[in-house]
C-alpha cells in the first residue's frame, strides 16, 4: 500500500516535482498567451489558483455523491461556477486586469490543470489534502507564469509591470513578445527545471512489453527479440 503523503510534501509537489506548466506541460495555451505581461500573468495565476483550490475541495467533499459515469460533466459544472464567481469579482474590482485577460479567464473552466487535479487527486483524497494540492499546483502555475512573463516583458518590451526600464526600453528584443519568443522561453525554462531536478519529476511511461495490459495473454511473449514479441516473424522462422 502506498504511503500517505504529508501535507508539506503535497504542497511542495505542485511547485517543483510536478509543476503543472514546466513538468507536466499543462495549460500551455494561457501560458503562452498571457505571459507578455507580469501583471496579466500574476492575475491569471491567482485566478486559476482560487478556482483550483475551491473546485478541489468541493469535488473531494462530493466524491462519494457524484456518480462515476457522469463525474466529468459534474466537475465542469462545479468549476464553471467558481470561474463565474472569480470573473464577476475581477470585473467589479480589477476591471483593467479583467479586460487584459479576456477570453482566457473564461477558459479556466476547461483548463487541463484543474480538470486533471479533480480527476487524479481530489476524487481520491480528503478535503484537507485536496486543499494543499490546490495551493501547491496553483502556486506552481503562478510562479511559472510570472517567471516566463518576467523574461518576456523585461527583455521583449523593456518594461516590468508596465514601468519602463531605461536601458532595455531602447534595446528590447521584440520577438520575445511574439509566439516564437514565447515558445523559446517556455522551452528554456522546461530545460532548466529538468536540469535542476535531473529528470526526477514525473515517472516516464514504460513502453516495454511488461507495461502492456495484454502482456499476460500474449503467446509470443517468450520470444527474445522485439520483433518476435510483437508477433512479427523473422525471415529464418518464416522459412522453417
Please provide the count of β strands.
Answer: 2
Beta-strand content bin: under 5%
- Helical fraction equals 55-70%
Number of helices: 12
CA distance, first residue to last residue = 49 Å
Overall geometric form: globular
How is this fold's topology laid out?
Blueprint: H1 7-15, H2 28-34, H3 38-61, H4 71-93, H5 95-101, H6 103-106, H7 112-120, H8 127-157, E1 159-160, E2 163-164, H9 166-170, H10 179-197, H11 226-229, H12 235-239
Antiparallel strand pairs: 1-2
Helix pairs in contact: 1-8, 3-4, 3-7, 3-8, 4-5, 4-7
Task: Characterise the protein shown here.
- The chain is mainly α.
- It is 61% helix and 2% strand.
- The protein contains twelve helices and two strands, in the order H-H-H-H-H-H-H-H-E-E-H-H-H-H.
- A two-stranded antiparallel ribbon has the order 1-2.
- Strand 1 and strand 2 form a beta hairpin.
- Helix 3 packs across helix 4.
Supply database-style keywords.
2 strands; disordered C terminus; single chain; two-stranded antiparallel sheet; 240 residues; mainly alpha
Outline of the structure:
With 240 residues, the chain is mainly alpha-helical. It is 61% helix and 2% strand.
